Amino acid sequence: MSDDSCSPSTATAAPLSPTAVTLQILSTVLFTFLVYLAIGIPMAVLPGYIHLDLGYSSFIAGLGISVQYFATFVSRANAGRMIDTVGPKATVMRGMLFCTASGVVLFLASLAQTLPFLSLCLLIVSRTLLGLGESLVGTGAIMWGIGRVGTHNTAKMISWNGIATYAALAIGAPLGVILDRSLGFAVIGLSGLALTTIGYLLARSKPAVDVVQGERLSFKLVLRRVFAYGIGLAFGTIGFGSIATFITLYYADHQWGNAAYSLTLFSAAFVGSRLLFANSINRFGGYRVAVVSFITEAIGLLLLWVATVPEVAMLGAALAGFGFALVFPSLGVEAVNLVPPANRGAALAAYSVFLDLALGFTGPLAGLIVGQFGYPQVFLFAAIASLGAVALSLSLYRSAQRAA
Predict the structure, then answer these.
(1) Do the beta carbons of residue 166 and residue 244 sit within 8 Å?
(2) In the chain, N or C: fewer CB atoms in 10 Å?
(3) At what angle do helices 327-336 and 154-183 cross, to 10 degrees?
(4) In the prediction, which pLDDT does 213 show?
């Protein structure tokens, strides 16, 4: 991105040292970490709670999880516009309040366990509020960080935001299982409430960044510009959605233990990939990195498909996480470059819509696949989607070369 895409505060400020840039980024992605820790803690617990404790089908269990992603999807446009008009700090703070409300409602759902339908309805409300908060915090934190360190650090900011996301999920999944077994399901909601309240208080104390001035494109136009890149992101996200939603039930179907550790391995591999290869996008370009990432993810998903022992499944989950790690930033950097500076919050939100859409549809669709063909076929379906993303990324790369 060119220097003229910086906000006024970043364009005129003295350049930051690499260490100072990293510290600024870390202090901003902390908000993402707290929200995704609140998301990760119930991740390995909720499918079993809905399916086994409340007695609903695997389809309903998948749908209950996916409600969060649908809520994030429908609120992305508003999140992008809020960032570009009132600023990312205010956006993050409002998102934290939604997440705090989600924790309160999840706690109420745990109290209604003896009334399955009421408990399920409260869970759906809780997941909806969490999705709204995730949309505002996830996109707002990235743009807040970019406003503090400059747009030339966009790839680094997106990469570290992803590290915070999946580090939180890696910690949250097994932590949620431990909390549920030792203290009961009610503490899951209370933990999310506490984490996001802390996030809100921390966000209040941090400095805001200037809102970039300029012509505001309609969200529909921005969405049209990033559409093809978003489709690639959606294809790659199906693998993560399948693992996040059904890995615990997949393990139970095979009568294996320690399913939460597969989520941890997925997330640990994701973080490792971001740490090791964060600069690869600047060196080789987003398109090339995306192609390699999708191929790696597909190999991991195919291992999950054919696994007959838990060790192979864990290797597959790790490879899928390692490949998926650079999908969002590799195509995202190329997508955000397609719009003027004053619309980059909207562009990032529009691009992220496809992640939400993929996660939202993966749960119920994978639930239907499970009902007809069994759990392993879910991962075959996700692998085919990743290979489709390889073909799309190659097509976008050729188009970009012709345009250049």
Answers:
(1) no
(2) C
(3) 140
(4) 64
Indicate yes or no: pTM above 0.85.
no
Closest CA to 88 of 151, 13, 158, 139: 139
C-alpha 357: how far from its chain's center? Answer: 11
Q: Report residue 340: phi and psi, to 5°.
A: -65, 160
**What average pLDDT score do residues 254-263 get?**
80
Amino acid at 213: Q
Q: Phi, psi (5° rounding) for residue 212?
A: -70, 130
17-403 CATH choice from 2.170.150.20, 1.20.1250.20, 3.40.50.720, 1.25.40.10: 1.20.1250.20
Contact of 162 with 293, CB cutoff 8 Å:
no
Backbone angles phi, psi at 328, to 5 degrees: -60, -50
- Exposed (0-12), middle (13-18) or buried (19+): which is 394, by Cβ within 10 Å? middle
**Sign of the Cα pseudo-torsion (10, 16, 18, 23, in order):** negative
Q: Are 229 and 350 in contact (CB under 8 A)?
A: no
Contact 163, 26 (CB under 8 A): no
Share the mean pLDDT of the chain.
84
Instruction: Determine if residue 17 is left, alpha or beta; phi over 0 gives left, psi from -120 to 50 gives alpha, anything else beta.
Output: beta
pLDDT tens readout for residues 32-64: 999 999 988 888 788 778 877 777 777 787 777
